[in-house]
Input
Amino acid sequence: LPNDRSQTSAQLLRKPLQQRVGVARLPIPTTLLSQHTTMKFPRSIHLGALMVAFFEAVPAVLAATRLGSANEQAQHVVATAAAKAPRTLSASGVTPSTQQRVRRSLKKAGPCTIVAEAGSRILEDGAVTGTDEDEFVCFLENGKSVSLDMTKKQKADMIKGLNEGKWVSDETVYDDPEATVDGEKISVPRGTKVLKKMTKKSKKNKKNENKDKGPFSGSSGKGRHLRAVVGDLEFLVVKVIDANGLQRSENEAQIEDDIFGTDIDTINLKSQLSDCSFGQTNILSKKVTVPPAPYVGDTGVITITLDIDIHQWDRNTVSNAARAKLDEVLGFAASSQYDYVMFVLPKLYVSWAAFAGVNSWYSFYQDSYFKYAGVQIHEIGHNFNLAHSGGLNGQTYTDHTCQMGNPLYGDDLGKMCWNPAKNWQLSKNEAVGGWYASRHSGANLKEIDPILESSWSGRFLGVANYDATVPDDVIVLKLETRAQNDFFIGFNRATGINLQNDEADDQVTVVQVDSNNGEGYSQSFLKATLRKGDEYVITNFGGTGRDVIITVTNIDVGGMSPGYAEVTVEYNPCASDADCDDGISCNGVETCVSELCSSEIPPSPPRDLSVELLTDNYPSETTWDVKNPSGVVVMSGSGYSASTQQSPITAEVYPECDSGNYTFTINDSYGDGICCSYGSGLYVVKLDGVNVASGGTFDLQEIKSFPVPVLSPPTPSPTEAVVTPLPSGSPTNAPTSPPTSSPTTSPTVS
Output
């Protein structure tokens, strides 16, 4: 079948025999659909238009058809419909004879803001699973989104760059004058490195975006808040009706209850986000007060009617139509006044249950999936800039301990939170506060460098018992690898807000991220689920050639509440001297003593390296790192969301045996540094309290190098001159005998 990505012949034949045409339903005999004929059509014929023409002719055919001639008649109808079918349909469902497709360069259309869209896919049993970032769309300056038409390699580079923080969804701009805008897509030139055509959103556009508009002006004063996670978050829910009257059967009050729990629904988006964050995240059902009726209401749900038949169009066209209609009804851009907007669509014959813009404001749900708390939380998680969570099998969406893995699906299922890596990100992405940083000044979020701290032990509580923690308890332990792919450990306690957890109940879980140090968008993978007595070995930890062993020494969930797990982390256990040899001669000969490696030459004392940062008014553009002479990242920072003085980050660094300098690299993705056009930002790097690098005025990147020399032992004070002590008694008396007389004979002279 021609040129329609959302419908295949197999999917069409699996549809119910009741097929909708306009507002009428026509019964199609099974015999008519079960006898297939292969025919060729021009690729430019739109499938939706072909089906409309086909069904318009069906009543007459059925009236004259007998069972024996059904296939012959079907061939005639299809052939006639194909001849009459238009080449395309307009967004309103009308078939204009004069409509032309216009190709224009992206330079003329203006740069566009890239958004990654991640979705939930429907399995055969009705359950949902995830897809990778399955589509990249670009929002033009007129607010319309168009898909990016790329090669597989270009798309793979985009996904890799997103995970590595090289670009940020709904923040990064694509601007390639060689690209062309053609209808609903941007054709990216083949062979182009897309990442090199990216920059940051215009500062001017950002300011316009945040201007107060509409009825909220002068009251809330809210502009758009990207990646807002904590505080009061204003939500709007939109019920969508298509041109044929297709819609969900629930009224606005019922939809509001399913999402906000305003009546009888006890497990919903609002309740679970509040519970998992311990009150840090409070979503508000924002009342719509825009005249004229029927848009004045008491609920945070609004109903809009589109001008298109949603079954005839792909999801990008439908989502564009819904967003445009909502803005038209409201009289202002919804994204400028609401933190998040959820669109509820009627049943579609598609493979996705829901999708959302990553680090963005919108999400779409079709059929009954908007009612499922697990699906709601998963999609809003993408809005929160969370990536998917992969499982033990290495697939990208099979961590069943996490809402960003395979979510729970059902109206009364959703009591489940996130894995340790996602909990770390949710706690660290706000400049102040965060989910598990509110108690004990964030002491329950611990980070260790096993290379420096060879042995650690502690008690873990699950997130469900966060309110029972004392300062020494651990919610998440981060193992710093000195690279971007750190490990995170947590106790997956299956109780209370995490009662409906779907894997590894009451076990310790180990999760690793692909990049971004767990503080930005990054795919995570479940590496181990551990019971009491189990251990997990991370081989060649941090590229050191030695292992880290994580051991669960105790789990107690049957005694006094709360349940807990005790865990030890050991680095560098050895069985022989050979296990300790690091191949570096300048640091002495290593030996194995009591299962720990040691050197006959004591290592040089560590030195304190700190980075102080004040961003400009666009903090999310700033990233930095410090690398040792071997190129290993020892410190880094990203994911800033407030242009205030960032707390100094301090690490102990060990002078390298080999020659070379440490390097500090700071990046500004927009290309205007951090000073002084949009704020007076600056950075200062200090070694033992002494400035070794500083600045703020640069373009895309600035690199500063500095040595970290070995501290010489203090020079001893000069040896004092030996002074003969004064005699303790009186001076020697003069001799009593007279001195010897001079000789009487002169000496001989030769």
Remarks:
- The chain has a mean pLDDT of 76.
- The CA atoms of residues 674 and 681 lie 5 Å apart.
